[in-house]
Amino acid sequence: MSHASSSKICKYNVFLSFRGEDTRRTFVSHLHKALEQSGIRIFKDDERLETGKSISDELLKAIEESKIAIVIFSKSYASSRWCLEELAHIIKCKNELELIVIPVFYDVTPSDVRHQNPPFQSLYLFKIGVRSVYTLPSSDPICGITMGLLLLLYMNKYM
């Protein structure tokens, strides 16, 4: 184990990255409740974050202070500049801080993400206002993560 990971102090066990309009009141609320009931410390953004504003430093810091990031890819995940900026920071932390990343594919398939099928073509190059341009590796937007959890929409009604 590297020095960076062994000395890292984690405020949160899990950081949840998701598109609120797709999953907040369904899958994410169930996942959050189950993790919380298991005694796991979770960072989940709340609805006070305003649409269209820049991602907050608090959110980026929460990613850095987490041991695991669960990225929930959904149909409109890639249309959110916040989600994309979170994803870029999650990948940076995966590479630099050994953050563990678990992708969940909610009503989309891993191949939709991997092969840049709409709406995921924007994962590869996106601009956040005038701040900067992020480029994710075109071969794999989740940087080598090939396994994840696939959830189809029809499963949601049983939760």
TrEMBL record:
Domain of life of the source: Eukaryota
Transmembrane segments: none
Single biological process term from Gene Ontology: signal transduction
Positions of the TIR domain: 10-159
Entries under InterPro entries matching the protein: TIR_dom (IPR000157), Toll_tir_struct_dom_sf (IPR035897)
Pfam family, one: TIR
Coiled coil feature spans: none
GO cellular component, one term: nucleus
Keywords assigned: NAD
Protein name: NL25
